[in-house]
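hey so i finally got around to running the thing on that chain from the lab meeting. sorry it took forever, my laptop kept dying and i had to restart like 3 times. anyway pasting the input first so we r on the same page abt which one it is
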Amino acid sequence: MIQRDSLIQYCDEVLNAAAWRDYAPNGLQVEGRAQIQRLVTGVTASAALIEAAIAWGADALLVHHGYFWKNEHPVLTGMKYRRIKQLIQNDINLIAYHLPLDDHPIYGNNAALAEALGLTDIQRFGSQQLAWAGALPAPCTVAQLHAVLTKQLARAPLVVGDTDRLIQRVGVCSGGAQDYLTDAAALGLDAYISGEISERSTHIAREEGMAYFAAGHHATERAGVQRLGAHLAERFGIEVRYIDIDNPV
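ok and heres what got predicted. didnt touch it at all, straight out
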């Protein structure tokens, strides 16, 4: 068992949370009980994940997508009220880390993607240097890279752009980072991988002569909370369970 505030202080420091200009607050978002023995990790603090945490008897919920996003209406009504009511009534802490969990060199979503592809010679690019770029172990075709991603993420990516070229240098950024595609093109990368796709992404990839893989927002952001949760379980001797709420996006 660990004190809630000690756990959050540790996570804040490990993830360097204060360094980020983020779209939502990082750390404790909804206060629950003071001591934590059972921790559920997941991608998004949806109603389904909260219900699963309650069923397991969790003391805290650690997610990548929490609440209180910029430009979000501040009132507690409707869906937001129902979610927060469930947390408060069951005395469950909600802890969230957004960009810090995308970027971390060990526990981050981008680190997991880079590792899965075997990327070397890593460099950073994009806003706040959030995206990663590196070299594959050997050149491959679009179809071969597609097969690797499908196996690693358990989801077949959508591919647009130049699908005939050989790929050696690849950029990755989990989630909704499709607009770093132009930054990837400026670096001369052969391919770029993120979670989502916009209408403009197809045209950018075609005109820049790149392949773009939209591998799923949820699928590309499952690894970070699992890695962090496993680390916290080992370090503090608490019970940690990752619960996946399926999301095709």
